[in-house]
What we know:
Blueprint: E1 2-7, H1 13-20, E2 25-31, E3 35-37, E4 42-44, H2 47-55, E5 59-61, H3 67-74, E6 80-84, E7 102-106, E8 114-115, H4 118-124, E9 129-136, E10 146-153, H5 160-184, E11 198-199, H6 215-224, E12 231-235, E13 238-247, E14 260-263, E15 266-269, E16 276-283, E17 289-290, H7 291-297
Parallel strand pairs: 1-2, 1-6, 2-5, 6-7, 8-11
Antiparallel strand pairs: 3-4, 7-9, 9-10, 12-13, 13-16, 14-15, 15-16, 16-17
Amino acid sequence: MRLVFAGTPAPAVPSLRLLAASEHDIVAVVTRRDAPLGRKRVLTPSPVAAAADELGLPVIRADRLDADVTAEIAALQPDLGVIVAYGGLVREPLLSTPAHGWINLHFSLLPRWRGAAPVQHALIAGDAATGASVFQLVPELDAGDVFGELAMDTPAEATAGELLATLAEQGARLLGDVVSGIAAGTAVARPQEGEPTYAAKLGDDDGRIRWDEPAPAVLGRIRGVTPEPGAHTTIDGARMKVLAVAAAPADAPHLAPGALALHAKRVLAGTGSAPIVLDTVQPAGKGAMRAADWWRGLRETPVAGS
């Protein structure tokens, strides 16, 4: 089949590489325009654009799938559109331009966590299971019939970045199977079942640690916002990033929410239930460091976090 692939960030790259190695023909890769990155704001291609260039695939750079992009894609006469985290909406008439429409690889078990940040919200909510779904794109957000899904137990200590990388690799294989099924005429989609939940894009306040929540909720939030938008708290009036955490041992002393203490050479932080361990932190104006090293560098005992 003649495919148009749309995607932008690193989690879309495994799918692009798998489809490029298949018997199908990728006639165009659509990705968002180069963006300024780093302190020097250097214009940098998206991970998908970089991978497409490496694979020798034609690239359409666009932040919106407007009439011009629609005409450019229509001229290629694609059989199927494939989208993985492009970062924009596919609307009519582009939605109906490919002969088989568009399919989307989404990193949740639909209809749970429709929207922009499914993996992050799944971890913040403490979901015991997660996965990926391939569905038919329709005008309503992530509401189309599902061709296939994979489910897995949520890894106990995974961050959103780590879990997303795992799902990107496994989801790519699922996506490839669905594309092959559509080409062979054997793919069957089923309507989504259950009450939808929604995963809005996260902002900075989502990364603020709520120390009065129970320990599992605090751990889930920190892991769910790592690496983006990042977990943070306030110590002595200064913002500090919290980069890695762990559950505290059973013999850890009870601490008030946000209170800090050193126990068995590890820094503990109190929550609404049991304390947690701070493993890696980044104080304001400094690089990432082990929490125990940060603690030893303090001139006085810190006050509670907030």
